[in-house]
Design goal:
Blueprint: H1 20-34, E1 38-42, H2 48-55, E2 59-63, H3 67-76, E3 81-83, H4 92-95, E4 101-107, H5 118-126, E5 127-138, H6 142-150, H7 154-158, H8 172-180, E6 184-192, E7 201-208
Parallel strand pairs: 1-2, 1-4, 2-3, 4-5
Antiparallel strand pairs: 5-7, 6-7
């Protein structure tokens, strides 16, 4: 499995990626509406989003597989705990140090994973019963895909030469299926960035369910 894991995404500073400009406000709004307290950011990168969540008064913990990202986060945001784990690791390692969480956030991560089912499995183990997973990924739908084709942008959109870049491309339907096959029920959807149906990213909110009862 190790050959299918990229351990270096190129973090060099504490500056947030451009996607934070349109994703972070939506994440903060959703957390407020869910009325949660303890949050874990899965794929926390350099800690930028964690710092925004912490600033709003939540108890937040970051989990990141890229060692350089964790190093930057720990040195920049000393008041927040960051752990060097990936979704392929045993969640029990984190739960030795932290209590279960009310919500998990994972922004622009699932499209980078060779085995994306590891993400909801990992998140589910970290959440309290009835906890929430908020997950974002670049949006793909018929109208946007058609526009990309018409303007000849697929090469730049896929960025195939980016080591550790996007290798999975998700629609609302396929991401919903991934979550529902791994112990969640999708309870919310929104698009962020640009105009409707040409959104840069989509945001799904999913609730952890009891697999036996389905509720």
């Amino acid at each position: 499995m190790g050959e299918n894991i990229v351990g270096n995404y190129g973090w060099q500073s504490s500056k947030g990626p451009d996607s934070c400009n349109y994703i972070t406000p939506e994440i903060l709004s959703i957390l407020k509406n869910l009325n949660v307290q303890r949050v874990v950011d899965i794929g926390s990168g350099n800690g930028h989003l964690c710092s925004k969540i912490h600033r709003e008064g939540y108890q937040v913990v970051g989990v990141e597989y890229d060692g350089k990202g964790v190093e930057i986060a720990r040195s920049t945001y000393r008041e927040i705990s960051f752990y060097n784990f990936g979704v392929q690791d045993d969640p029990a390692k984190l739960l030795k140090h932290e209590n279960p969480f009310d919500a998990a956030v994972s922004t622009e991560v699932v499209e980078h994973l060779f085995s994306p089912h590891f993400l909801p499995i990992f998140a589910r183990r970290l959440l309290k019963e009835g906890g929430y997973l908020i997950i974002t990924t670049p949006y793909h739908g018929y109208i946007k895909n058609l526009a990309i084709s018409l303007f000849g942008k697929w090469d730049s959109h896929h960025s195939p030469l980016w080591h550790g870049g996007h290798i999975k491309f998700w629609s609302r339907k396929t991401l919903t299926t991934l979550l529902e096959e791994n112990g969640f029920r999708v309870v919310g959807f929104s698009g962020v960035g640009r105009i409707p149906y040409l959104w840069k990213s989509m945001v799904l909110v999913a609730k952890k369910i009891n697999k036996k009862s389905g509720g």
